[in-house]
Amino acid sequence: MAGTTENAPVTVTVTGAAGQIGYALLFRIASGDMLGPDTPVRLRLLEIPQAVKAAEGTAMELADCAFPTLESVDIFDDARKAFDGVGVALLVGARPRGPGMERGDLLEANGGIFGPQGEAINAGAASDVRVLVVGNPANTNALIAASHAPDVPADRFTAMTRLDHNRALSQLATKTGMPVSAIRRMTIWGNHSATQYPDVFQATIGGRPAPEVLDQHWVEHTFIPTVARRGAAIIEARGASSAASAANAAIDHVRTWVHGTPEGDWTSAAIVSDGSYGVPEGLVSSYPVVSREGRWEIVQGLELNEFSRARIDASIAELVDERDAVRDLGLL
Ligand SMILES: NC(=O)C1=CN([C@@H]2O[C@H](COP(=O)(O)OP(=O)(O)OC[C@H]3O[C@@H](n4cnc5c(N)ncnc54)[C@H](O)[C@@H]3O)[C@@H](O)[C@H]2O)C=CC1
Ligand SMILES: O=C([O-])CC(=O)C(=O)O
Asked: 32-45 burial, b if ≥16 CB within 10 A, otherwise e?
């Protein structure tokens, strides 16, 4: 199946492969969008037993695309087998929220999935494994997975806030009439939840500081709530949670992690805190990050005004509450 690709193959495990995001994600991974056209991909799909047949259908369609980068597809209902040799683990499989729910309401329903998957990653992953948690509540699920993988360095576990980041770029582009590519240094801080803080104070738009271009009232009362509540607005409109845009953000996250951020810009990712910017060490929080030589680094030395500090602190407080809740549930 593999064509004229040059690099060593990478094993990519996707959980929840028969779900909505899985269907939007797998074809892009297989086509080379995530790791590049020169890297063959060995896909391993993990599903619950009832959804294995649907995953088999997706595998048939993957075969029918005849992607030169797709070396193999295997389907499992056993996490240990699915994560054997994994280089990139995309933990998508989890229940989505419905109308009227916050993502934190899913803690109890979904938290139990991530401990066993962390253990399976610990047991079988490649030494340079990269893990992205998409299933909600993503930050705290990543914390659970990392805490069950003591032999895997904590910086290998991340959660997705790239969708929030992309939503913020899009809102700013629409508001200012500038192309998305003219907006730099946007940051999402904190939790992938309604408390997240989309920070424009460090951003530039067309080379000018964003606060000079934007009206503070619009930032506070329209922009921030629009970005932070976009997931709920999509659920309201579609009757189902974001899928294609979530898959796209997952592709962006891993591609940036592997291939690096462009000079002069950064992105947002939830990573295990080293204590930077007052986030308690060990919490999985979104930060401004660059990727250099395949590792995330937090952008240091940013000055935070009082408004930003208060917003970040509120999101951190929620992450602390979520951590305490999963500890009480015995999931950590
Ligand atoms: N971090 C982010 O930005 C975003 C996160 N999400 C979250 O992603 C998750 C998945 O969303 P959808 O694909 O729309 O849901 P879905 O319900 O369409 O698919 C979920 C799939 O996961 C599978 N699954 C459940 N438990 C599993 C387990 N233990 N192992 C393997 N597979 C398992 C289910 O059988 C199902 O096929 C949800 O938690 C959703 O809230 C969604 C959008 C954005
Ligand atoms: O809002 C949800 O539940 C799904 C999600 O995480 C998003 O779209 O950001």
From this structure: bbbbeeebbbbbbb
Q: For residue 169, what is the domain's CATH number?
A: 3.90.110.10
Q: Which of 165, 192, 221, 253 is catalytic?
A: 192
CA 322 to chain centre: 18
Same domain, 121 and 229: no
Ligand 1 midpoint to CA 199 (Å): 28
Is 192 tagged catalytic? yes
Residue indicated by tokens 């499992």: 76
Token pair 């992450």 is found at 319
Q: Is 167 annotated as contributing to ligand binding?
A: yes
The verdict on the CB of residue 136 being under 6 Å from ligand 2 is yes
For ligand 2, the distance from its centroid to the CA atom of residue 36, given in whole angstroms, is 27
The pTM for the full model equals 0.97
Residues 196, 99 within the same domain = no
pLDDT tens-digit profile of 191-206?
999 999 999 999 999 9
Question: How sure is the predictor about 284, in pLDDT bands with cuts at 50, 70 and 90?
Answer: very high
Lowest mean pLDDT among 99-103, 115-119, 135-139, 146-150: 99-103
